[in-house]
Each structure stands twice: as C-alpha cells, then as structure tokens.
Design brief:
With 357 residues, the protein is of the alpha/beta class. The protein has three domains: 8-152, Toll/interleukin-1 receptor homology (TIR) domain (Rossmann fold), CATH 3.40.50.10140; 158-248; 252-356, no CATH class. Helix content is 44%, strand content 19%. It contains eight helices and twelve strands. The protein has helices at 17-29, 31-37, 53-62, 73-77, 79-94, 134-152, 158-192, 197-248; strands spanning 8-12, 40-42, 66-71, 99-104, 119-121, 252-262, 286-287, 297-300, 304-307, 316-320, 325-334, 342-351. The strands form three sheets. A five-stranded parallel β-sheet has the order 2-1-3-4-5, with helices on both faces. Helix 7 (158-192) packs antiparallel against helix 8. The chain is globular and about 70 Å long.
C-alpha cells in the first residue's frame, strides 16, 4: 500500500451510550495519528441525513483498511453487530482485504473464542474499564493502532521487505564478527611482546589461523544471504509465472451481471463494494460482493443468468446456481446514459476446474 494513500479506519461499536462515550475518547487519542499519518476514521454517526444507513455502513466497512471491533457486552448482545458487521469484518480479514483489531472496552466472558489470534488492545488484554486511568488505556490502544498504520504504509513488496531483513541480519552478524576479531587482534598485540619466544611462535600461528577463518565465515554468511535472496526471487517469479499461465489458459464461458455501483463513482476500483440495495434482484450476485480483480475466483451468491455478451438482451447461455465457483476475466461498466442513479457491473467468467481451489 502506498504511503500517500490515506488509511481508512472503521469503528464497529455498539449503539449503547457508554460504548459510544469510550469510542469518542479513543477518537481523541487518534487525533495525532490523523494529523501525522493522514488516516481517516468513520463510524455510523457520520451518516448524512437522507442516505440509506445500511448501504453507508456496508460501503465504509468494505473499503476500510483497518476495522476496530470495540468489544463489549452490548456489541455481542446485538444480533446486527455480531451476526452482520463482525462476521463481514472477519471475512475481510481472512481474505486480507482489511486488518481487524480487537479493542476490549469491557469484560465479556469467553469473548476471544470467536477471533483466534487477532491483535488485541490494550496490551495484556486488560479492558479499558479495568484501567484506573482511561487515558492510559487509550494511549496504549493508539500506540498499537499506530504500529498497524506504519506497517500498512511501509513498502508494499513482501519479498523486498524480506530481503531487507536478511541484509540487515547479515550486516549485523558480519559487524559482530569484525568487532570480535578486532578486539582479539588488539588484545594479542598488547600482550604479544611480553611473551617468551616459544609462546610468541604459537600465538603467531593461532593469529594466522584466525585471519584465515574470518574470510571463510564472511563468505558463508554472504552465501546464506545470496541463497535466500535467490530463493525469494525464484519463488516470486514462480508465482508470477503461475498467475500468467492461468490467465493465458482462461477460457471464457460468458458474461454475468454482478452488481451495481453509484453513477457518481469515478469508475471501477478493485475491491470497492457493490451496492447492497433493497431490491433482491439487484443485490450482488457474487461473493465477496466487491469489484473483483482479473483472475479472481468468486462464488455465485444467488441465481444469475450467464449471457453471451454483457447485456441483459444478449443470448442466454445458462442459469448459474448459488455455490458455483468461477474465475473472473474482464470487468465492465454499463448504464452511463440511463436515468438510473446506478451503473451496472458485468464480468466475463470462466469455468472453474482444478485451478479454483
């Protein structure tokens, strides 16, 4: 992720007044991070008058980079928060479309069983309400969120990051060996002249052996670094070739209607959510319900017609059933010249065989 792109933070908080007060205090502690790192935060109380609240929440949830689940008994008690928002947040986390962080507001029995090894704040999993000074708790939480933001705004290339870590390790190891050798040489020089002649000869022999050993150690370290670098590069190249091969072998089956976006949108952006409308016939037909990238594997969410071309009037080829998997080819927008406030999103798909695991 580019460091120039603002990190979007989504609050998943219950409707209770006490939880909202705690969320508001956390927002204050994130103010320096918003100014320094340019992050933006959103919660349901920012919904403008006249807008459909469910669409607004879904839109901001599906486009968030960091999702803060403010854990409390009120959040867990709410069926909508627990069954809809929390479930969707976990799906986004598992598919690496967002990072979920648990913020423990109050004590709840057995809350962690639903989340596995997600990051929990404050440190030590001590609820905010158990802290003598709430400001100290929120300072700890803000620090943990800052760490996540800095990771997201660092280099987007994991191979490059791994190589940098290996390189740093090599340099530190080589420097340590060099310092140890230099200290040994200095000590030997200081004591060499006071030794008897026989002892001098034996000490000189050991010194020669040390100087012969040092280059061998450095060569071994360099060899390890280069082999790691080669392996990482080879793996990256192998993955790229595999993706390219899959795209080249893509055999289109036809086109399907996958959902709607607002006409005011700047265009198709990979990962942007498809609109959750009140009409069941215009709900997204794929899962995950977002604009897919080329070669993405999607699951059919509801019955949808497979067409020869990207129009509803083109020849009907088949009716796809929920649960079927397909690979995405092209993705196109239609409906720019109509009176509708929405534009249709169509996708070319290919049948899934063994490549869709």
């Amino acid at each position: 992720m580019s460091s120039t792109k603002a990190i979007k933070v989504f609050y998943c908080c219950s409707d209770s007044d006490k939880d909202e007060k705690l969320r508001n205090e956390l927002e204050k502690h994130l103010s320096p991070l918003k100014r320094q790192k340019g992050i933006t935060t959103w919660d349901k109380r920012m919904i403008s008058a006249g807008k459909e609240w469910q669409i607004e929440i879904d839109t901001h949830l599906n486009t968030a980079n960091i999702i803060l689940l403010l854990i409390s008994s009120d959040l867990i008690y709410s069926n909508y928060h627990w069954e809809v928002l929390v479930k969707r947040a976990m799906e986004l986390h598992k598919t690496r479309q967002a990072r979920v962080i648990l913020v423990l507001l109050s004590t709840v029995d057995n809350w962690k069983s639903e989340f596995g090894n997600l990051k929990v704040l404050p440190e030590g999993e001590k609820p905010v309400t158990k802290w003598r000074n709430y400001d100290h708790a929120f300072e700890n939480i803000a620090k943990g969120i800052r760490e996540e933001v800095e990771q997201l705004t660092s280099s987007p290339f994991p191979v490059q990051n791994s190589l940098q870590q290996i390189e740093v390790g090599v340099r530190l190891t080589a420097r340590t060996f060099w310092n140890l050798t230099s200290a040994t040489v200095n000590l030997a020089t200081a004591t060499f002249s006071s030794l008897p002649r026989g002892a001098r000869y034996r000490r000189r022999k050991k010194a020669k052996l040390s100087f012969l050993t040092m280059p061998i150690i450095i060569v071994v370290i360099a060899g390890v670094f280069l082999s790691q670098r080669f392996n990482l590069s080879e793996n990256s190249s192998s993955e790229s070739n595999q993706i390219l091969s899959t795209q080249q072998n893509f055999e289109p089956s036809g086109w399907i209607w996958i959902g709607l976006i607002n006409k005011t949108s700047t265009g198709l952006i990979i990962g942007d959510p498809l609109l959750q409308t009140s009409d069941p016939q215009t709900l997204p037909s794929i899962d995950p319900p977002s604009v897919p990238s080329q070669n993405r594997v999607v699951t059919i969410k509801r019955k949808v017609n497979l067409r020869e071309n990207k129009t509803s009037s083109s020849q009907l080829l088949d009716e796809l059933q929920p649960g079927e998997k397909f690979r995405i080819g092209e993705v196109k927008l239609l409906g720019n010249n109509t009176n509708s406030p929405y534009r249709q999103v169509w996708a070319q798909i290919g049948r899934c065989n063994q490549t869709c695991n």
